[in-house]
Write a structure and sequence with these properties.
Elements (H helix, E strand, L loop, with lengths): L1 H14 L3 E7 L2 E7 L1 H109 L24 H14 L5 H6 L2 H44 L4 H4 L2 H11 L11 H27 L13 E4 L2 E4 L6 E4 L2 E4 L5 E3 L4 E8 L6 E8 L2 E8 L1 E2 L6 E2 L4 E4 L11 E7 L2 E3 L1 H12 L2
Antiparallel strand pairs: 1-2, 3-6, 4-5, 6-14, 7-13, 8-9, 8-12, 9-10, 10-14, 11-13, 14-15
Helix pairs in contact: 2-5, 2-8, 2-9, 3-5, 5-8, 5-9, 7-8
Bound molecules: zinc ion (ZN).
Zinc ion binds next to loops.
């Protein structure tokens, strides 16, 4: 330590030897003596001053560049930051808009499904109400049996199994609908990625497709049954010999469709499956409307017999030998023999138009107006149980069997008039059997 400081002192004393500075002015020589210490102190002061000047110069020269560099750095940072912020915002927007699309999609799907469900339910309910009415009619008609009073062994309606031997058209329709469902556009990315959201969407779409197929099948089943029942009832009506076209004018049906409203929805501005469903739904609603119209007509057609008790068919419709004077004459009705005072009953619902003795050999007679141009007559009764203007239902008692008027024995003379012209009642009673027999 002491050796090193001694060395430093030697070096310093070599550099800063004691010096004398001579200076002459006005012939006088002065000298200033400078010790080593003074020289060192002076060197430090001068060195410090030089350093300060150097630093200041550098600072002045480079300050602007430093500021510019700093500003550039902060600008870069700012740009990077705002770019990241923007990216994040965009990613968030993408996610939230995707979410919104999915939500909207889901909501629309739910609305579609529930609208379709509501329609189906309405149609099935309407169809079921009509079926109940038809079942009641069939059960009522079954009470009277065939023209001779034979009751059916089984009371099943024909329309339940209208064509059991045929391959069910529903199966062919099923494959068509399945094919349509398979060809429906599906998201290929969703099935590839297998992501959780993609998987959930796929599941939802699959469930919706399955439900759609089920709903289409139900719709097809309702339409098929409604059409089959309507066709069957039309056959029943046709077999009565009454002019069916006069009973079921197209105007009547279209009025009914308009009145019922139905689920008519303009499918023109829809696309894909919804439009397919609504087209089919409108068609099915029209089929149910037509069945309803048919039911409304057939309910008031006299398809039963004026006697529900055991009876004997004694005289047919048409030209026959008159039982009293033996001459050929036209018989505008049919005759049934049964025990005295057997109840004579209305062959369909209607309003009593006439109750009393109208003359012309009919004796005590009741006339019932069933609407749609149908009137029934029950003649030769011993007693009348209704009054004009009274409403009657199928098989309501209108009087008792007798022998009044131009009659050779206790029987009921029964007539059906359509728009004033007589028709063969036997054909109506036979037709009635096809409503309840299989
Ligand atoms: Zn007669």
């Amino acid at each position: 330590m002491s050796r090193r400081s001694g060395k430093l002192r030697r070096v310093l004393s070599r550099f800063f030897k004691e010096r004398q500075i001579y200076h002459r002015s006005d012939g006088v020589v002065h000298f200033i003596s400078m010790s080593s210490k003074t020289q060192i102190a002076l060197s430090i002061v001068i060195g410090a001053a030089l350093l300060w000047v150097a630093y200041s110069s550098v600072n002045v020269v480079f300050k602007e560049q430093i500021i510019v560099a700093k500003e550039r750095d902060s600008r870069i940072m700012e740009t990077t930051y705002s770019k990241r912020l923007h990216d994040a915002q965009r990613a968030y927007d993408d996610v939230s808009s995707l979410n919104q699309i999915i939500q909207q999609n889901f909501d629309e799907t739910m609305v579609d499904i529930s609208t379709r469900h509501q329609m189906l339910r309405n149609m099935v309910e309407r169809k079921s109400t009509i079926d109940q009415g038809l079942d009641a009619l069939a059960a009522g008609l079954a009470e009277a049996g065939d023209p001779n009073g034979q009751k059916p062994t089984n009371g099943n309606r024909v329309m339940v199994d209208i064509a059991p031997g045929e391959p069910t058209p529903r199966q062919s329709r099923l494959s068509v609908i399945r094919k349509a469902a398979e060809s429906m556009p599906q998201d290929p990315a969703g099935s590839e990625s297998g992501g959780t959201s993609g998987g959930a969407i796929d599941l939802m779409e699959k469930a919706e497709t399955d439900l759609f197929v089920e709903q289409m099948l139900l719709l097809a089943a309702v339409e098929e049954k409604a059409n089959a029942e309507r066709n069957h009832l039309k056959l029943v009506l046709t077999s009565t010999g009454a002019p069916v076209d006069a009973l079921l004018t197209p105007a009547k049906i279209s009025n009914l469709v308009l009145a019922q409203g139905g689920p008519f929805i303009d499918a023109a501005n829809m696309s894909g499956t919804s439009s397919e469903f609504f087209h089919h739904a409108n068609r099915t609603a029209a089929a149910v409307d037509e069945l309803e119209a048919m039911h409304a007509v057939i309910k008031y057609v006299p398809l039963s017999s004026p006697l529900t008790v055991s009876r004997r068919f004694t005289s047919g419709y048409g030209v026959r030998r008159d039982p009293i004077n033996g001459r050929h004459s036209s018989h505008h009705g049919i005759d049934f023999a049964a025990p005295w005072a057997s109840p004579v009953t209305a062959t369909a619902a209607g309003v009593v138009k006439l109750a009393g003795n109208r003359g012309g050999g009919f004796g005590r007679m009741v006339e019932i107006d069933h609407g749609n141009g149908f009137i029934t007559r029950y003649a030769h009764m011993s007693r009348i149980s209704v009054k004009a203007g009274q409403k009657v239902n199928l098989h309501d008692k209108v009087g008792e069997l007798g022998n009044s008027g131009r009659s050779t024995g206790p029987h009921v003379h029964y007539e059906i008039l359509f728009r004033g012209k007589p028709l063969n009642p036997r054909r109506f009673i036979e037709a009635g059997r096809y409503v309840f027999e299989s």
